[in-house]
Amino acid sequence: MNLSVDIGGLRLKNPVVTASGTFAYGVEYAEFLDLNQIGAITVKGLSTRPSKGNRPGRVWETPCGMLNAIGLQNIGIDAFIKDKLPELKKYDTKIIANFYGDTIEEYAEAAAALSAADGIHALEMNISCPNKQAGWLAFGTDPALTQKVVAAARGATKLPLIVKLSPNVTSIADMARAAVDGGADALSVVNTITGMAIDIESRRPRLSNIVGGLSGPAIRPIALRMVYEAARAVKVPVIGMGGIMTGADAIEFMLAGASAIAVGTVNFVNPAAAVEILEGIKQYMAGHSIDDINSLVGGMIC
Amino acid sequence: MNRFFSADIIRNFQSQESRNFILEVRPHAALGSALPGQFFMLKQAGAVDPLLMRPFSLADFIPPNENNPNGSLMFVIHAIGRGTNILRRLPKGTLLTVIGPVGAGFPPVSEGETLIIVAGGIGIASVFGLIFKYPGVPLFYGVRTKELMIDSGLLNYPQDKLHIASDDGSVGDEGSVLDLLERYLERDGAIHSGGRLKIYACGPHSMYKAMAKMALDADVYVSLETPMACGVGTCLGCAVETVGGLQMVCKDGPVFNLKDILLDG
């Protein structure tokens, strides 16, 4: 049974990736599952300087999902490289460093700093956090600006560059093409969907940021549709994500066109989920006599 | 010790008068020992409603016996939202997934120190561990009304150490339990003159605000509660503001020194 997939030059031993922001810096999960079994670990979004994130009122559960407005709290690239990476790189898995900047220059600076570190196998560029200000959101919603910021990061790294797209757009296909035109080797589809919730007793928003990102099974059909549309629009591989809870969900994303899948919110619900989902994928393949996982990609029959 | 395991409900005892219930679960793996104030994340295995686990303080651990080779965990819960109301209706035998013990509990009380426990409402759930570890210490317990009082576990408590108040006077003194505490400290202040006084509390935010204003000559530790997703310090969802910046209730707490937390907001 072949489970290995190629994501824009990043060779994974299996298609299960942990999603950024839901798996800390990886090492924190070593007590709950065998990190060696995961295809790749995407670490919490990093910036050149540490970031404190948003004020409390950061998470709220909604039907079959959750809203978050953490605000990209992170320890900063230097601290990650110094304090987390040496331990993380001992594991036999691929490390994808998710990063962001507040300006085009910062994106390039972050990409260069991460590329200089030993042990990072690919970069995932976050242009789609819903908890940032309006000006920043344009990186992930204005195709011309997307292409420009991706090109800046592209120029700063030789590592495989994955661009994580926002679902909060009219045409995910246009955004996918813009990222590829900017030099993306692969796409992550999708980030969280902007949402909100209000406490009707106090009339206050549940999140201090008022709006936040909705994740979990609530968004799965939307994410699946976007993976389908993005994968048809571009030739680069797509990592599909959005509410995957089981191996069956993962297979569905691959049939829609994903070459690999990422698991996010489910890590909070079940910290061993990534390996259980991998088992579910293997069981499906065995049960359907599928020898190569790649034969499932885009295999929906219409 | 594995902190992530499955368990099944062996007792789900409903109060007839209120939405309080006692949930006893049997872990399917050996546990690490839990300190008073630490908590566990619980959810029905495989369920997506609610999606996230829910944090509950451990009220008591019943040691292993022939029926329960890993012992059992007891939680005292007040059903207040969707998650707890679903949990309340789960029958005996329901499979749960559990993470725990997690968080930093109440600091140990050293020789020569005096402990006073304060519980407001369902806050009693997270001080039961203290009550069992330090039996007979003065306990101040405030409830809105008699029906909400959880007296199991307190039945044999020395009456002269138990100070109860209720908002409507239906049990104990009428008024705030903090008034009882204040009077007690004025009257019996001498009892702790020999050693440092520690006050460990769990109750609503408003109780902590009132305690902060009392200028207590004591080390006051309180247990906080916030919405949280992961329970293990990774989602960064349960942040609270402290004098030293943001801290996570699930990992840095839930027990904090009262003087360190910023209560407004």
Strand order of the largest sheet of chain B: 4-3-7-1-2-6-5
* Chain pair sharing the greatest interface: A-B, 33 and 32 residues
Helix content of chain B: 10-25%
How many structural domains of chain A? 1
Number of strands of chain A: 14
CATH superfamily of the largest domain in chain B: Nucleotide-binding domain of ferredoxin-NADP reductase (FNR) module
- Using the CA coordinates, give the radius of gyration of chain B: 18 Å
Note the gap between the termini of chain A.
26 Å
Low-confidence stretches of chain B: none
What is the chains' assembly state? heterodimer
From the helix content, strand content and strand pairing of chain B, which structural class follows?
Answer: alpha/beta
- Beta strand count of chain B: 16
What's a quick, concise take on this entry?
Chain A is α/β, with parallel strands linked by helices and 302 residues long. Chain A has helices at residues 77-88, 104-115, 134-141, 143-154, 172-182, 220-233, 247-256, 266-269, 273-287; strands spanning 5-7, 10-12, 16-18, 40-46, 59-62, 65-68, 94-99, 122-126, 161-164, 186-189, 193-196, 211-215, 238-241, 260-263.
Please, could you describe this protein's structure?
The complex is a heterodimer of chains A (302) and B (265). Chain A is α/β, with parallel strands linked by helices. Chain A has a single domain, classed as TIM Barrel (Alpha-Beta Barrel). Chain A contains nine helices and 14 strands. In chain A, strand 7 (94-99), helix 2 and strand 8 (122-126) form a beta-alpha-beta unit. In chain A, helix 2 (104-115) packs parallel to helix 4 (143-154), helix 4 (143-154) packs parallel to helix 5 and helix 7 (247-256) packs across helix 9 (273-287). The model of chain A has no long low-confidence stretch (mean pLDDT 96). Helix content of chain B is 14%, strand content 33%. Chain B has helices at 82-88, 124-133, 177-187, 205-213; strands at 4-14, 20-27, 39-44, 54-57, 60-62, 72-78, 95-102, 114-120, 139-143, 162-166, 173-174, 197-202, 219-223, 239-242, 245-248, 255-257. Classes of the chains: A alpha/beta (302), B alpha/beta (265). Chain A binds chain B through residues 21-24, 28-29, 31-32, 52-53, 55-56, 58-61, 63-66, 68, 70, 73, 216-217, 245, 265, 267-272, and chain B through 2-4, 43, 48-53, 83, 97, 99, 226-241, 245-246, 265.
